[in-house]
Amino acid sequence: RYGEVDYEQDVTSDSVVQNAVFDARGGDDPVFNWRWIVGFAASLTERDGRQDDEREEGMVELGRWITPRLIGLARVGYTDDSLGTSGDFENGSYWALGLEWLPIDRMQIRLLYGDRDKEAGLRYQSRSRRTEIDLNWRDLEVGSSSVIGTRFTGAVSHRGQRSNWALRYTEENSNEQTLRLADTPLGGDAEIEDPVTGEPVAPETDLFSLTDDNFIRTRWDLATGYKTPQSVWGLGVFEEERETIGIDERETVTGVVASWRWRFRPFTSMLIRGEAERTEFDDGREDDFTRYDLGLRHELSRSANTSLVYRRADRVSTDPTAEFKENRLTLQFEKQF
C-alpha cells in the first residue's frame, strides 16, 4: 500500500507512507496434525526534511495437534525497526513455546512463554454466535512496540434482535502520518462504527496536536445502537490518550457521539448527529469541541444516492488562538460501479 499526506504548516512533515504485508497459513485441521503461519510486515515513512521511520518484522509459528483439543505451539521471529523520533529500544530475534487449548468448539485459550516474547489470549463465541470476546496480552521485548511495555488489546461485542453493542480497547506505537492513511484511522474520519448502521463515531481529525514524533496511543470505545423498521439510534463514547515518546508530553480526548437516522419515506431518510469532546493537555490547556449535523439522504437507485448535510462546529479553548466556529453545507452524489 502506498499513500501520501501533505500539511499546510511546518509542524508536521509532508510524508510518503509505504506498507507491505504478507500472511500465509494452512493445515488448521487435526487430520493433518500440523498447522503453520508465516508473516512479514514492513513499512517506510519518508518525511520531508526529517528523519524517516522504518519498521520490519518477520514471524513463523508452527502448531502440532497433541489431542483434538490441545495444540503445541512454537514461534520464532525478528524485528528491525529504526524510528527517528522514538525512544530507546532493542532490535533482534525472539522465540516462544506454548499451548493452545480448545475446551469447546467456540473457545480458544493460548499461552506462550519464551525469550523476549510472552503472550496470553482468549477467544470466545456464544452458541448463538451473537456474543464474541477477543482478549490478547503480549510482552514483546524487541522492536518499537517494546517501548509500550506489556500490550493489551480487547474486544467484546453482542448482536441482539434490535440492539447491538461493542466495546474495544487498543494500545499501539504509531505516528500522525500513519493514522491519517490507515484503513480505519483511529482519531480520524472513521474510527468507531455504529454496530447497527455502520456510521462513523469518531473525534475530529484535528482534536490532537499535529506532531512529527512517534507516540504511544491507548484508546477505548463503546458503541451501541438500536434499530426499528423506520429508525436507527446510535450512541458512542470513547477516550484516547497519546504520549509522545522521548518527550513525555501527553494529550487526552474524551467524547460522546449520538445519532438518529429516520427513514420517513421509502427512499429518503433524515440524519441528526451530535458530538461533544474535551481535550486535555499537559500544560493545562483544555479544549471543548462540539459538532452538530443535520442531513437528508435520498436513494436514486440501487447504485446511486445523493445527500445534503449542514454542519455546525465550535471549539472553545483556554488558548484563544485555538478557538473557531464553522458552518458547512455539503452536497454529495455517490455512484457505485
What descriptive keywords fit this protein?
mainly beta, 19-stranded antiparallel sheet
Please specify the SSE layout and strand pairing.
Elements: E1 2-5, E2 15-26, E3 34-47, E4 53-67, E5 70-79, E6 82-83, E7 92-101, E8 107-115, E9 117-125, E10 131-140, E11 151-159, E12 163-175, H1 176-181, E13 192-193, E14 200-201, E15 214-227, E16 231-244, E17 249-265, E18 268-281, E19 286-301, E20 304-317, E21 324-335
Antiparallel strand pairs: 1-2, 2-3, 3-4, 4-5, 4-6, 5-7, 7-8, 8-9, 9-10, 10-11, 11-12, 12-15, 13-14, 15-16, 16-17, 17-18, 18-19, 19-20, 20-21
Q: How many strands appear in the DSSP assignment? A: 21
Rounded radius of gyration (Å):
23 Å
Poorly predicted parts: 183-206
Q: In DSSP terms, counting alpha (H) and pi (I) runs of 4 or more, how many helices?
A: 1
Q: Mean of the pLDDT scores?
A: 82
Percent of residues in β-strands:
over 45%
How far apart lie the N and C ends?
A: 23 Å
Helix content: under 10%
Order of helices and strands: EEEEEEEEEEEEHEEEEEEEEE
Specify the overall morphology: globular
Derived from helix and strand composition plus strand pairing, the structural class reads mainly beta
Q: Main sheet?
A: 19 strands, antiparallel
